[in-house]
Amino acid sequence: SAALIDGKAFAAGLRARIADKVPAFREATGRAPGLAVVLVGEDPASAVYVRSKGKQTREAGMESFEHKLPADTDQATLLALVDQLNADPAVDGILVQLPLPTHLDEQEVLLRISPDKDVDGFHPVNAGRLATGLPGFVPCTPLGCLMLLEDRLGDLSGLDAVVIGRSNIVGKPMAALLTAKSCTVTVTHSRTRNLPHYLKHADIVVAAVGIAHFVKGEWLKPGATVIDVGINRTETGLTGDVDFESAAAVAGAITPVPGGVGPMTIAVLLRNTLVAAHRREGVALDEAEV
Ligand code: NAD
Questions:
Q1: 53 an active-site residue?
Q2: Best mutation site among 146, 190, 233, 234 for ligand 1, i.e. most ligand atoms within 8 A of its Cβ?
Q3: Which candidate among 20, 28, 34, 63 keeps its CA 20 to 30 Å from the CA of 155?
Q4: 158 among annotated binding-site residues
Q5: Whether residue 240 has its Cβ less than 6 Å from ligand 1
Q6: CB of 232 sitting under 6 A from ligand 1
Q7: Tens digit of pLDDT at every position of the chain (290 positions)
Q8: Ligand 1 pocket check for 265: Cβ under 6 Å
Q9: Is the reported ipTM for this assembly greater than 0.90?
């Protein structure tokens, strides 16, 4: 049966490599890399994410600036905060926790973040940079998936990859990353007519659907590497988008949920912040090392 891809352990290693790079940056600039996180309202899941982001940022030796705004914050106030963070020399990365309360215009807020501080990689300028092969910032979750895939498989060139889901946050950037690594990429989505047909030949499957147990083991190519991005809350706890038991019987390797992709997201956020800080200050960093 399939090998387990231990994202928790990989993320811990990545955080350690990031923390190792902080002292030299401090030495060169007299300050630590800084990440600003903006949380509007009291969504409990978002509050948990923001707390872990702050904690892991500090544990890596970086500065965490946390801005908690009330749920009834208006658009102008939020935009003014983004402007202030864009101008703040101590801030290298800015993250506005999504989803925003529905009275706010998410798109306008994301567009306001300076692309060079956009460590979430959600600004269209960064999406364009990814699509055209320019250096920028790549969304954390798909970049984390790519790291796990390369760690497991080495060179991905020529492999057949199927991405299930086409969101701007996961599916689309995942497909762009795999294309850049010379995979043959198929993007499938809610209107795809015959998903098993595409999965039959896939060496790599990345599932980002949001439906528990959606991908069945019998659809997979034996030996496939399966990355399960899904986080679904069910009566029995957290579960992914892949039907783990049937998939593990066929796949060569698979990420568990929890403990697979989940822990990678914040670790990559810290990585993007470290990279942003070095680029902004013109301090050399071998980005391939982190
Ligand atoms: P989304 O709702 O924005 O996108 C879901 C995608 O699935 C859509 O593109 C849709 O076309 C596709 N889809 C829906 N039904 C389908 C079907 N029957 N067949 C094929 N495709 C179908 O979600 P998202 O933001 O991309 O997130 C996807 C999942 O990943 C969610 O469970 C989310 O919680 C999880 N997620 C996890 C992390 C993490 O850190 N691990 C980060 C982001 C998202």
A1: yes
A2: 190
A3: 20
A4: no
A5: no
A6: yes
A7: 999 999 999 999 999 999 999 999 999 999 999 999 999 999 999 999 999 999 999 999 999 999 999 999 999 999 999 999 999 999 999 999 999 999 999 999 999 999 999 999 999 999 999 999 999 999 999 999 999 999 999 999 999 999 999 999 999 999 999 999 999 999 999 999 999 999 999 999 999 999 999 999 999 999 999 999 999 999 989 999 999 999 999 999 999 999 999 999 999 999 999 999 999 999 999 999 99
A8: yes
A9: yes
CB 29 within 8 A of CB 278: no
Global model pTM greater than 0.80: yes
The residues near 71 (Cβ < 8 Å, ≥ 6 apart) are: 40, 41, 42, 101
Distance 148 CA to ligand 1 centre (A): 19
| Torsion sign over Cα 32, 36, 42, 45 | negative
